[in-house]
């Protein structure tokens, strides 16, 4: 009787392990990150639309305007590795809230600018630092902390968020610029960034352990202590990675990726099409359609990255992109014809399909430091974009056409395809020694 009573009284459930909800919290965190990236990416739809209006309003050269865009793109990339380290120190939520506020401030202040140096300060410094702090390094941090399984898929989805922002804001901003001028469009972008802030603060969580969960598909781990010396760590990881061959190959191929997408197509497709007589709204709509297929292509690339060798995927993506760019100058016309639609669909599928396999290769090579290493690889992406954003404007001023830049980008993509095949997969992924 006593034993029975003791057994009954002692039948206390064992301490509960990490809860396993029907829908894992990681998917909600990924959803918040998706919306955040859309809000932050709203500004990226703006520069290509405003090159001609700013040129007409202030009589600034296209080279000057392109230089401001290049500062934005370079800082977008150079900020990313420090942002990843800052997220380790202060948490994703605080860093992202500050970043969104900087984007909003830069877009809003540009309404009152009167000199080109202010464009470089607002668009270049403020927006560049803000967007860089919540760019792909943010996606990498979310993926590495909250997911063990489906990392390739989640990387593809979060990467596609930038394209989704383009899909939402490009037609809207083009209509605003066409009917109401460039200033209301800039205000719209600022408000889009501010609207996201409450969602980030209330719903984003830094680590699964904060809510007593294991990462999706993994085992429960305690939240690591904040890492001090964020800037020092980012630089130390860079020096350690720079001693390895794969880092330079990844950085080189991703620089060409940035040159051929953000630096060239995102910045100069609309003004180039307009040079051939196409209305700005029509050209912007085509660029937005690239965003539609970008979402499809990036998610598909994430799925493929979970199943096939990443370096071979990269080689295929760059080779196909290069061929398409070589044909683009011949497709420009006042009206939209089927060959141009084919280019838009094809290029959209390939736009940032390079990100999931590049991140996978970083993870294979550099283990727990992969988010910061990827941040530096992303920096090279944006430096490549910055160079072409500036060179494209200068080329238009000098030659009266963007054609030479399209051809040069196509040749660079062929080189990137060859570089991708040289990258060797690491058998293990230890942390870098630093």
Automatic annotation (TrEMBL):
<feature type="transmembrane region" description="Helical">
    <location>
        <begin position="121"/>
        <end position="141"/>
    </location>
</feature>
<feature type="transmembrane region" description="Helical">
    <location>
        <begin position="316"/>
        <end position="335"/>
    </location>
</feature>
<keyword id="KW-0472">Membrane</keyword>
<feature type="transmembrane region" description="Helical">
    <location>
        <begin position="65"/>
        <end position="86"/>
    </location>
</feature>
<feature type="transmembrane region" description="Helical">
    <location>
        <begin position="95"/>
        <end position="115"/>
    </location>
</feature>
<feature type="transmembrane region" description="Helical">
    <location>
        <begin position="183"/>
        <end position="204"/>
    </location>
</feature>
<feature type="transmembrane region" description="Helical">
    <location>
        <begin position="153"/>
        <end position="177"/>
    </location>
</feature>
<dbReference type="InterPro" id="IPR050327">
    <property type="entry name" value="Proton-linked_MCT"/>
</dbReference>
<dbReference type="InterPro" id="IPR011701">
    <property type="entry name" value="MFS"/>
</dbReference>
<protein>
    <submittedName>
        <fullName>MFS transporter</fullName>
    </submittedName>
</protein>
<dbReference type="Pfam" id="PF07690">
    <property type="entry name" value="MFS_1"/>
</dbReference>
<dbReference type="InterPro" id="IPR036259">
    <property type="entry name" value="MFS_trans_sf"/>
</dbReference>
<dbReference type="InterPro" id="IPR020846">
    <property type="entry name" value="MFS_dom"/>
</dbReference>
<keyword id="KW-1133">Transmembrane helix</keyword>
<feature type="transmembrane region" description="Helical">
    <location>
        <begin position="341"/>
        <end position="361"/>
    </location>
</feature>
<dbReference type="GO" id="GO:0022857">
    <property type="term" value="F:transmembrane transporter activity"/>
</dbReference>
<dbReference type="GO" id="GO:0005886">
    <property type="term" value="C:plasma membrane"/>
</dbReference>
<feature type="transmembrane region" description="Helical">
    <location>
        <begin position="247"/>
        <end position="269"/>
    </location>
</feature>
<feature type="transmembrane region" description="Helical">
    <location>
        <begin position="373"/>
        <end position="392"/>
    </location>
</feature>
<feature type="transmembrane region" description="Helical">
    <location>
        <begin position="26"/>
        <end position="45"/>
    </location>
</feature>
<feature type="domain" description="Major facilitator superfamily (MFS) profile">
    <location>
        <begin position="28"/>
        <end position="428"/>
    </location>
</feature>
<feature type="transmembrane region" description="Helical">
    <location>
        <begin position="404"/>
        <end position="423"/>
    </location>
</feature>
<keyword id="KW-0812">Transmembrane</keyword>
<feature type="transmembrane region" description="Helical">
    <location>
        <begin position="281"/>
        <end position="304"/>
    </location>
</feature>
